[in-house]
Specification:
Belongs to the HAM1 NTPase family. The chain is α/β, with parallel strands linked by helices. The chain has a single domain (about 1-200), classed as Maf protein (Alpha-Beta Complex), CATH 3.90.950.10. About 30% of the residues lie in helices and about 20% in strands. Strands 2-1-3-4-5-6-7 form a 7-stranded mixed β-sheet.
Length: about 200
Amino acid sequence: MKIVLASNNAKKLLELQALFEPLGVELVTQGSLGIPEAEEPFGTFAENALAKARHAAEASGLPALADDSGLAVEALGGAPGVLSARYATLFGQPKSDADNNRVLLEQLAAFPAPEQRGARFVCALVAVRSAADPEPLIAMGRWQGQILAVAQGEAGFGYDPLMFIPSLGRSVAELSAAEKNVQSHRALAAVHLAAQLREVWHLG
């Protein structure tokens, strides 16, 4: 089944394609179909993912899959949250991974101890058969860790170099793609969504 991915992030496409390939799913990015990005006006990951999935389905006429994911830092009341991708812009800085990471470290300067820097990556995955699908499939995944004081690792993207996973003894950016695809918040959400795709859409 061909499903439109409501994202133009090449690394996200690779992650999700690997996770859903066993179901016989072929993901195509909305950008390859000339579909512009949707607005993300909501305050929760699930609502934004649903809005993006509906937008892509309506524009393409195909089933659509969307994720909304980000970082929730306990000491910052859950920020950056749904604004993770553009967190630096809230402080007058450019939108980039490097600037987001730098601003995050600045905001956590008053919380130096590792036990004060608890955080989790959160992912909401939503699949719809059409824009009017009354039964969207929604799955959540969470990956608990701590924010490092200094970036570690070269792999991944976003906040991966700052997110330390105590159970693994490494940052997310120090994991291979294969390791990340098993451990990550997106992988956990994908496992839940895959079960729903099998049950409700009869895939795989």
